[in-house]
Amino acid sequence: MLKKAFGWLHSPYWTDERKKEVPSAEVVNGVLDYVRGLGLSDDDLYKLLKKFPEVLGCDLESEVKLNVGKLDSDWGINGKTLRSVLLRNPKVLGYNVDCRGDCAAQCTRCWVRF
């Protein structure tokens, strides 16, 4: 799981952009604690990570927290609804492109998929 999250295994999310990196426990625990704090149980967290292990390699402040804020501010998604969205489509935590229909060829990271 960590290999995929930090670019050691091929991932369509990272394409060739991610440099192989040894994850620090602080970074991984920071993401895990934050995501767990969104109302996910340990079982939910396992399901989310199984679908999108790359979240562990996403920047907590500029991607994960920003995207949770965007879900709340743009679509009013929070609380139990947020939990449901994250379990159904955890990749939303890593979206960092919004082509608004004018394709930027980074579809695995694009909000247009949401």
From TrEMBL:
Pfam (any one): mTERF
| GO MF | nucleic acid binding
Keywords (A to Z) from UniProt: Transcription, Transcription regulation, Transcription termination, Transit peptide
Cited InterPro entries: MTERF (IPR003690), MTERF_sf (IPR038538)
- Superkingdom field: Eukaryota
Q: What processes in GO biological process is this protein linked to?
A: DNA-templated transcription termination
tRNA-binding as a keyword? no
Family, similarity comment: Belongs to the mTERF family.
- Record's protein name: Mitochondrial transcription termination factor family protein
Source organism (scientific name): Aegilops tauschii subsp. strangulata (Goatgrass)
Taxonomic lineage:
Eukaryota, Viridiplantae, Streptophyta, Embryophyta, Tracheophyta
